Amino acid sequence: MTEFEQIYREHFDTVYRFLIRLCRNEPLAEELAQETFFRAMRSLGKFDGRCRVDVWLCQIAKNAYYSHYRKQKDKNHALPEIDSGQDVENALLDKEKAMSIYAHLHELNEPYKEVFMLRVFGELEYAQIAKLFGKTESWARVTYHRAKTRLTESVKEDETK
Fold first, then answer.
1. pTM
2. Comparing C-alpha atoms, which of 38, 42, 36 is closest to residue 17?
3. Statement to judge: residues 113 and 82 lie in one domain
4. What is the pLDDT at residue 80?
5. Which residues constitute the domain of residue 119?
6. Could you give the number of structural domains in the chain?
7. Residues sharing a CB contact under 8 Å with residue 79, sequence separation 6 or more, in sequence order
């Protein structure tokens, strides 16, 4: 068994579950998981070991999801607005309003964008997010709160235009 086959066997389930939480669509998660491992295979030589393999793979999976999302976004011409009084997380449950929020989320700077995505779409606990970034749980909580606040303000500002 090659090194890559072993990585695939050991980590496919983790990547697939991460993608299901991210996109909430099993067939799409399966497709993106395959894309993730294809990308990982092409760049295995670039993996420097500074993080765990599963973290590296989930980062590739997240990027594959973003790429898929951008392609889907290009197919949609008009983005619907969100009610200013509605909570951002609850609005994500409404697919039409979600497209507007995704557009604003894409504009957030790092680490806010990634922390928000990991918390809301990846359904990770603050402790897990903190571990991924090598930070404290308090840092993860504050960063998530700031991301949510910035996202809400951006959506509200867009509504007033």
1. 0.48
2. 36
3. yes
4. 37
5. 76-161
6. 2
7. 99, 100, 103
